[in-house]
Structure formats: structure tokens, C-alpha cells
Amino acid sequence: MKKTFHLCISAGEEVLFRDAEDYNRGFNCFALALFNTDSIGLVESEMSTHYHQLIQSRNPDECMRYFRLSYSMYFNRKYHRSGRIGEKNHYTMEVVGYNHMIAAMSYILRNPLHHGVSPIPYAYPYSSVNSIFMKEMGKEPYGALLNRRYYHRFVNRTTHIPDNYVMSENGVFLRESVLDIPQVENLFVTPRAFNWHMTRKSSEEWELEQRKDNNSLPPINLSVIEKGIYMTSPKEMLINEMGKSNYRRPSDMDICAEIDNNLLLKYGKSSVYLLTRQEKQHIAEHLYRTLHVSESQIRRCLAM
Fold it and tell me: What is the DSSP string of 9-23?
């Protein structure tokens, strides 16, 4: 019998996704991990430093292992890197009960808001939030679709692709063709209820609601859902939840783009992973002077 799990993999002292192609490939790897482990995906949110997934599976660790292996192969080949991607251990938490499930899905989909990279969940492109109640919320579907004969340009060529998976022309599977969106919509019941949960404030009341499930598990809150993620403190995330974050500041993807597309040319290198320690230090000093971003953000984008 499949059980429901929240999975999260952290990048540690680097980033998981440096550009849009990486985010797209990351979701494709997740989609194929679901298929190859007979798992069901519910919601997910890709962040530059970590990846939240809510799945139903008999073996959640195998699903994460498949995702990590396939994505590491892609990432290492592209950036001339070696070794596993992310920290040694991923976070797994079983989700039991209706209120527990609603809270888990809500916090995962609101993750970009909590980390201050998006003013509202719907403005973030790398999560499944805009695939839920798509028609009722007035969301536009993806544009042109890719012919199936070209799918293997964006996944491992030896991988079997399920017939129901549909890919957009920018090389990412449509989330609504991969995830069990009808189940998610049934749990939220109505578009209005879903929208309320996307804007609801974190509170003790929300935690008390989850205790009605009598599952002996801790109620889900920012500290629980973000366990092991040290990019932003729960206190900062609550401030971001109130809409007080500077979401216009350079993102990790902005900094990685400046490094990968401009600064690497000066050193004749094709990847940040080929830079010497001294070269990384020179770039770090330049970024600090010109972009005025934090040292920790610079360090992870340079994989220092």
C-alpha cells in the first residue's frame, strides 16, 4: 500500500539548479523517478538550494535515489563536475491525515514566498502551483507542445517515457500530465479554498487543526517542513510570508547567469567547477562589489 511522504533534498554548499534548463531537467528527472518506482506525485517546488516533493509511494527513498542519480548524471555532464548532487542524506517525513496533508501541500507550494524569491506563490514558475485548478484560476496552459520524437533531447535517451507524459516545446513535461492534480484538487475541494491556503498566515490555529488527525506526528510548520534547510530562518520566512521581502534582489539564478554567461569568459573556463580557488575568490570579490549580495549567496553560486 502506498503511503504519503514529504521528501526534500538539499544542495548543501552549492546550488541544485543554475538556469532554467536545469530546473526543467530537474522536474523531468522527478517525473521519470515517479514512473520508474510506481509512485504518485502530488505537489512539488524546485528551489535553487533544495527540492520539495510530496509523493505517494511504497518506497520513497528509491524514488529519491532514482531522481538524484539521473539528475546528477545530467548536472555533472553539463558542468564538468563529479560526485553526487546534494547532501548525503535527504529528508523524509510521512504525512498522515487530511489536515496534515493540506498543510504539507500548502507549505510546499508556498516555499518560494517563504524564501523571499516570489511575492506570491503563483508568480513562481518552478512549482506545480499553477497546475492546480488551472481553468478555474484563469491560468493559461503551456504554449506549443513538442513532438514526441524529440522528447529524448531532454531526458536520458534510454529512458522509457510513459504515454500520458506530455512535453512543452521548451523541454519540460507538463506538470498536469505527470502529477495527480485531480487528487490534489479534491483535497482542497474548491479553487477559493485552495487560494485561501496559498495566502493563509502561519499560525498556532493551523497547527491545532492538524492535531485533529490524531496521527502522533508533529504538526507541519515552517520549522518542520524546512528541516535541514539553512538558507532562510523560520523567523525570516514569516517576515517574507507577510510580503515584506525584497524579492526583486538578485536571485541565485541571476548570479549564476552572471557567472556562467559573462565572468567565466575572462578565465577561459566553461564551468564554475573548473575554476581554481583563487579565480573563484576574484569573482566573489567582483560580485560582492557590483551586486551587493550576501557572501553566503555568492559562495553557493560559486560552489566554494
Answer: EE--SS-S-SSHHHH
| The three cell numbers locating residue 100 | 496534515
pLDDT tens for each residue of 12-44: 889 999 999 999 999 999 999 999 999 999 999
Q: Torsion-angle region of residue 289: left (phi > 0), alpha (psi -120 to 50) or beta? A: alpha
Place of cell 573548473: 274
Q: Which residues, 6 or more positions from 243, have their beta carbon under 8 angstroms from its beta carbon?
A: 119
- Per the CB < 8 A criterion, the answer to whether 33 and 64 are in contact is yes
Please name the residue ranges forming H helices in the chain: 20-36, 60-79, 98-109, 111-114, 175-178, 181-188, 191-199, 204-211, 222-225, 234-241, 252-258, 264-267, 277-291, 295-301
Per-residue pLDDT of 97-155, as tens digits, reads 999 999 999 999 999 999 989 999 999 999 999 999 999 988 877 678 999 999 999 99
Residue whose cell numbers read 506525485 = 41
Q: Compute the distance between CA of residue 126 and CA of residue 45 in angstroms, rounded to an integer.
A: 6
User: Strands across the sheet with 91-94, in order?
Assistant: 40-46, 50-57, 3-10, 91-94
